C-alpha cells in the first residue's frame, strides 16, 4: 500500500493519497490538484476515487478540476453540499467500505464541524478532516456546525484503539500527525 500526506494551499491543508494495486484515492483535494496528480503518476497510480471528509471550500476547491482530469468517482456524505450533474457522486454513510486495490477504507460518520463530516479508517490510520486536529478540534461556530454532535463524534473516536494514527485535515498542531492515545492524553476535547 502507498500512503502520502501532502500539505497544500494557503490554509495549512493536508490532502492524502491512498494507493494500492495501481489505483489511488485522493482525499480532500482542496488546492494545487496538479501536485496530487503528479504524486500519483510518480507511483504509477491511477486516480479512481476522490474522498471528501466534508465539503468545505478548503477541502474541495479543486474537486471539479481533479474529477474532470481523472473521471474519478466522488465519495461524500449526503448531508454535505457537494452536487454536480457532471460527475459521479457516491453518497457514503457510517460503516460503508470504500475499496482501493486491496485496501478497504471504512467510513465513520463524525458530524459536528459539519452535518455530514466523516473520518476514513484503514490500515490503523484515521483521516480526521476538520473533526480532530493534533491537540485541537474543528470549529463548531460555523453555519451547519453542532457542538453537541461534535462532542458525540469525539467520544466515538476516543473509543478507537490508542495506537491508531491520526492524520488531520490541517497542520494546526505541534506535529503533522499523532495517535488516538496521544489525543486522549493531550487534547482537552478528547478527555471524557
Ligand atoms: Zn471544515
Ligand atoms: Zn478545513
Main attributes?
192 residues; alpha/beta; Metallo-beta-lactamase, Chain A; six-stranded mixed beta sheet; 5 helices; 21% helix; binds zinc ion
Structure notes:
There is one protein chain. It contains five helices and 14 strands. It has a single domain, classed as Metallo-beta-lactamase, Chain A, CATH 3.60.15. The strands form three sheets. The protein has a six-stranded mixed β-sheet with strand order 1-2-3-4-5-6. Strands 7-8-9-10-13-14 form a six-stranded mixed β-sheet. A two-stranded antiparallel sheet has the order 11-12. The chain has 192 residues and is α/β, with parallel strands linked by helices. A hairpin with a 2-residue loop joins strand 2 and strand 3. One zinc ion (ZN) binds next to helix 2.
Oligomer: single chain
Q: Supply the CATH superfamily name.
A: Ribonuclease Z/Hydroxyacylglutathione hydrolase-like
Number of domains: 1
Strand sequence of the main sheet, in spatial order?
Answer: 1-2-3-4-5-6
Question: Cα distance, first to last residue?
Answer: 34 Å
SSE succession: EEEHEHHEEEEEEEEHEEH
Instruction: Name the bound molecules.
Output: zinc ion
In helices, the fraction of residues equals 10-25%
CATH class: Alpha Beta
Strand content: 25-35%
Largest sheet properties: 6 strands, mixed
Low-pLDDT residue intervals, each spanning 5 or more residues: none
Bulk shape: globular
Rounded mean pLDDT is: 97
Please state the CA-atom Rg, rounded to the nearest Å: 15 Å
Number of strands: 14
What's the architecture in CATH terms? 4-Layer Sandwich
DSSP summary: helix tally: 5
Amino acid at each position: 500500500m502507498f500512503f502520502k500526506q501532502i500539505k497544500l494551499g494557503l490554509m495549512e491543508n493536508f490532502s492524502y493519497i491512498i494507493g494500492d494495486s495501481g489505483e489511488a484515492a485522493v482525499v480532500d483535494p482542496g488546492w494545487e490538484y496538479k501536485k496530487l496528480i503528479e504524486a500519483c503518476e510518480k507511483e504509477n497510480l491511477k486516480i479512481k476515487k476522490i474522498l471528501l471528509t466534508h465539503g468545505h471550500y478548503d477541502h474541495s476547491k479543486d474537486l471539479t478540476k481533479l474529477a474532470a482530469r481523472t473521471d474519478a468517482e466522488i465519495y461524500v456524505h449526503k448531508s454535505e453540499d457537494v452536487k454536480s450533474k457532471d460527475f459521479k457522486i457516491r453518497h457514503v454513510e457510517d460503516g460503508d467500505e470504500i475499496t482501493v486495490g486491496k485496501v478497504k477504507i471504512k467510513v465513520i460518520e463524525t458530524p459536528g464541524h459539519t452535518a455530514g463530516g466523516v473520518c476514513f479508517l484503514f490500515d490503523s490510520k484515521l483521516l480526521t478532516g476538520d473533526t480532530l486536529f493534533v491537540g485541537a478540534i474543528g470549529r463548531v461556530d460555523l453555519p451547519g456546525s453542532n457542538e453537541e454532535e461534535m462532542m458525540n463524534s469525539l467520544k466515538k473516536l476516543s473509543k478507537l484503539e490508542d495506537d491508531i494514527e491520526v492524520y488531520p485535515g490541517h497542520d494546526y498542531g505541534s506535529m503533522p500527525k499523532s495517535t488516538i492515545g496521544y489525543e486522549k492524553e493531550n487534547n482537552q476535547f478528547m478527555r471524557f
